From TrEMBL:
Protein name: Aminopeptidase N
Ranges for domain Peptidase M1 alanyl aminopeptidase Ig-like fold: 445-548
The species this protein was found in: Aquipseudomonas ullengensis
GO molecular function: alanyl aminopeptidase activity; metallopeptidase activity; zinc ion binding
EC number: 3.4.11.2
SUPFAM superfamilies in UniProt: Leukotriene A4 hydrolase N-terminal domain (SSF63737), Metalloproteases ('zincins'), catalytic domain (SSF55486)
Pfam families to which the protein is assigned, alphabetical: DUF3458 (PF11940), DUF3458_C (PF17432), Peptidase_M1 (PF01433), Peptidase_M1_N (PF17900)
Function: Aminopeptidase N is involved in the degradation of intracellular peptides generated by protein breakdown during normal growth as well as in response to nutrient starvation.
Tagged with keyword Glycosyltransferase: no
Length: 880
């Protein structure tokens, strides 16, 4: 496979004004006929270069140019292109191909999942359906007719509006759909299956009625209400916050069981992983309910940020993904607790995106080269891309940002554009020059921001100094300074925010404000401060950087209690925990007895005693930084020391805080017993505290906790409590209860694949010794299959990504296991294979012995035979 570069971008030679597709779906093959109404791109010269259509794994049956059947001498065919010579500036191509969705295990293009036909075309799946100009800057008006056997496939769907349907002889039927909006091929979709739907209606801001339908397999019809509610909330929110109205008469979501990622925003016909649609109390956790809400919103928001305005080329992917993640995270913040949502997002970003940015696959938000575009649906494109948008939002303010987004949508509606076009609209609407800011799009790596301060008592002034730098990343040795928005406040001894007046300012400008650090070294001096303040820096995580400030532990405890920025209260607790855990890690490595700094106990005690504090915040503050995060911030990660230190701290906290934890557990469990399940954030909040309390309490090994755990498991009415009770038991010393409960759970839920995924995950994550053997045994379980991506993620992904002590076993057995799975997945599903690889790409983080073992497995994969471009790119870059 070869590298593709942004600098080589060229506008398409030809355009496709109309695309008329006909699908004849059969059990052992599918026939696709495509009629393409084409013309020479009028912005280019008048000559007629060869027409090069993309196509892979297609059996060409016939091709005609303007009704003239072509013979093999008239075109060239290789394994990825069909090339022919147009003779006029406007022409029509008719082609027929045979494809095999029934044996498509890569789940890209047209494939079958649980007996239904469905598609996944982004990024380059359409070329596995028909010969086409499969690139996002070729936009076309699509008409689609599909026919299938009526009994097995009563529902026939495609993009746009249904315009005709009918029956054929032989028990077959057909339907025609027309999409009035121009779209690139990656937004094409079709579905044929035996599906039921829940229907609802939404009236848009201009009073148009839109029909909403969510299609699922019949047995899941009782699990779609939450997704439907989420959809209506999303439609309303996008009207209110962005002024965006839905544009077709019908909006459909279809749930499928085998799907490579979360969901896909095909125009008017979103196709979802069933894990991101189905949710009801008995079978889905609170987290799953929140994920459904977020993904439904995300895909819906793409209708504008992605579909109406799309990407010129795949280097611009973050144009739609970063923006849409930013939109969905703000939506979730508005629907739930803003602070808690921010904490979750930041914890995720710092653990996973920062690790990516520090590894061999590091790339800018707008990459400039790739081998396989599927490998670039990354945390950097999505999550860091969203942070970049958030910074623009912070710098411009909500109102000006809205003017910018209005301008962007108005200016580029119906176009395929670039990240530069987006930033240009923001600049034009605001008058702000974002030239330097755009380095966030082009430079990879996580900037470090070191801050220090000095107080001048004689002058009543306080000087804050910042120093920024950014580590080298592949292909980028040197970095230029970023524009880093630092929101901050200065607190007095009571924790009150002080007026902020910089030297040279006439008067204070607020008590919490955004400074812009734009130079490698930069200082800000605040005046009129009668006492030495304590800074609250980078409030709300106003930039995706690694900030350091020399707080001592007492100051962090003070911020935990007094900072008026909720995010920074949590952040102070995290920093305190990190300091304490790193001390324990050192003790463990030196072979000393572990001694926990009692200040952490005291700090968490006052959090638990604070009845005013949002219970979700209490739960977040009780959550110690995860092992993966502790790994990310280590120079060389000592997995065993990290695990031992963290478990020791948890045990000590459980003992010291037992009574308070027990009290809060009981109070919340009592509420759970007396109220029916509600999927609403105040209830998410109290259950999250109840559940984290239980996970601490069980460490005591006390019989009353075991009894409580079993009571919760048996008597609850929802999956959140049930699964937590199970997970707590699985990680507990109560061996026989663990086994019986696991067996009972599997027996009860054996027919629900999404619940079984949870069952696999809980066991894959158990850090008790013998993890690999348990995972290997589970791979033989009848409910497990490597063909289903959710199963792969639930078992193999959870083991390698979350069970760090077992995965990193010193003998290399975890690495060997993962490499074996990647090798077998490489043949069946390259995208999933490549994703599962990522733990091995982080080999530079570990000690020499583990490094050698991990590299050895990467080399073994490389030598294992024919590799997909997906796997080849990740392995070769990791070894480079
Ligand atoms: N746009 C899709 C992702 C497609 C991934 C292709 N490998 C889902 C989303 O981000 O909304
Ligand atoms: Zn998206």
């Amino acid at each position: 496979p070869k590298m593709i570069y942004l600098k080589d971008y060229q506008a398409p030679d030809y355009l496709i004004d109309e695309t008329h597709l006909t699908f004849e779906l059969f059990e052992d093959h599918t026939l696709v006929h495509a009629q393409l109404v084409m013309r020479r791109n009028p912005t280019l010269s008048a000559d007629l270069p060869p027409l090069v259509l993309d196509g892979q794994q297609l059996e060409l049956l016939s091709v005609a140019l303007d009704d003239r059947e072509l013979s093999a001498a008239d075109y060239q065919l290789d394994d990825s292109h069909l090339t022919l010579q147009p003779t006029a500036a406007s022409f029509v191509i008719d082609s027929s191909v045979r494809i095999h969705p029934e044996s498509n295990t890569a789940l890209e293009g047209l494939y079958k999942s649980s007996g239904m036909f469905c598609t996944q075309c982004e990024a380059e799946g359409f070329r596995k359906i028909t010969y086409y100009l499969d690139r996002p800057d070729v936009m076309s008006k699509f008409t689609t007719t599909l026919s299938a056997e009526q009994h097995s496939y009563p529902v026939l769907l495609s993009n746009g509006n249904p315009i005709a349907s009918g029956s054929e002889e032989g028990g077959r039927h057909w339907a025609t759909w027309e999409d009035p909006f121009m779209k690139p091929a990656y937004l094409f979709a079709l579905v044929a299956g035996d599906l039921w739907c829940v229907e609802d209606q939404f009236t848009t801001m201009s009073q148009r009625a839109v029909t909403l339908r969510i299609y699922v397999e019949p047995e899941n019809i009782d699990k779609v209400q939450h997704a439907m509610d989420s959809l209506k909330k999303s439609m309303k929110w996008d009207e209110e916050v962005y002024g965006r109205e839905y544009d077709l008469d019908i909006f459909m979501i279809v749930a499928v069981n085998d799907f490579n990622m979360g969901a896909m925003e095909n125009k008017g016909l979103n196709i979802f992983n069933s894990s991101c649609v189905l949710a009801k109390a008995e079978t889905a956790t609170d987290a799953a309910h929140q994920r459904v809400e977020a993904v439904v919103a995300h895909e819906y928001f793409h209708n504008w940020s992605g579909n109406r305005v799309t990407c010129r080329d795949w280097f611009q992917l973050s144009l739609k993904e970063g923006f849409t993640v930013f939109r969905d995270s703000e939506f979730s913040a508005d629907m739930n607790s803003r602070t808690v949502k921010r904490i979750e997002d930041v914890a995720y970003l710092r653990t996973h995106q920062f690790a990516e940015d520090a590894g061999p696959m590091a790339h800018p938000v707008r990459p400039d080269a790739y081998m396989e575009i599927s490998n670039f649906y990354t945390l950097t494109i999505y999550e860091k891309g969203s942070e970049v948008l958030r910074m623009i939002h912070t710098l411009l303010g909500a109102e000006t940002f809205r003017k910018g987004s209005d301008l962007y949508f108005a200016r580029h509606d119906g176009q395929a554009v670039t990240c530069d076009d987006f930033v240009q609209a923001m600049e034009d609407a605001s008058g702000v020059d974002l030239t330097q800011f755009k380095r966030w799009y082009t430079q990879a790596g996580t900037p470090r921001l070191e801050a220090s301060a000095s107080y001048d008592a004689a002058a009543n002034s306080y000087r804050l100094e910042f120093r920024q730098s950014c580590p080298a990343t592949p292909g980028q040795a040197e970095k230029l300074p970023f524009v880093i928005p630092v929101e901050l406040a200065l607190l007095d001894a009571q924790g009150r925010e002080l007026p902020l007046q910089l030297v040279g300012e006439e008067a204070p400008v607020g008590r919490s404000r955004v400074l812009q650090v734009t130079q490698a070294e930069q200082a800000f001096t605040f005046i009129n401060l009668a006492e030495k303040p304590l800074p609250s820096l980078l409030r709300g995580f106003s930039a995706p950087v690694k900030l350091s400030f020399p707080y001592d532990r007492d100051q962090l405890m003070f911020l935990m209690q007094h900072d008026s920025d909720g995010f920074n209260r949590w952040e102070a607790g995290q920093q305190l925990s990190v300091q304490v855990l790193q001390e324990l890690i050192g003790q463990y490595q030196r072979g000393e007895a572990l001694v926990l700094d009692q200040r952490l106990v005291a700090a968490l005690r006052s959090v638990l005693q604070d009845e005013q504090l949002d219970q979700a915040m209490v739960a977040e503050m009780l959550s110690l930084p995860g092992e993966a995060y502790l790994t990310e911030i280590s120079e060389v990660a000592d997995v065993d020391a990290i695990h031992a230190a963290r478990e020791f701290a948890r045990g000590e906290l459980a003992t010291a805080l037992f009574d308070l934890l027990w009290q809060r557990y009981q109070a919340n469990r009592e509420l759970s017993r007396s109220t029916a399940y509600i999927a609403e954030f105040t209830h998410f909040a109290r259950r999250s505290l109840q559940n984290i309390a239980l996970s601490y309490l069980v460490l005591s090994g006390r019989p009353e906790v075991l009894a409580a755990c079993l009571e919760q498991y048996e008597a609850c009415d929802n999956m959140t409590e049930r699964l937590t009770a199970l997970a707590v038991l699985v990680n507990s010393p109560f061996e026989s209860e663990r086994a019986t409960t696991l067996a009972a759970f599997a027996e009860h839920f054996k027919d629900n694949p999404l619940v079984m995924d949870q069952w696999f995950s809980v066991q894959a994550g158990s850090t008790l010794p013998g993890g690999l053997a348990r995972v290997q045994a589970l791979m033989q379980h009848p409910a497990f299959t490597l063909k289903n991506p959710n199963k792969v993620r639930a078992l193999i992904g959870a083991f390698a990504g979350q069970n760090l002590v077992n995965f990193h076993a010193a003998d290399g057995s975890g690495y060997r296991f993962l490499a074996d799975q990647v090798i077998s997945l490489n043949a069946s599903n390259p995208q999933i294979a490549s994703r599962q690889l990522s733990p091995l790409t982080r080999w530079r983080k570990y000690d020499d012995k583990r490094q050698a073992l991990m590299k050895g497995e990467l080399e073994r994969i490389l030598a294992s035979g024919e590799l997909s471009s997906d796997v080849y790119e990740v392995v070769s870059k990791s070894l480079a």
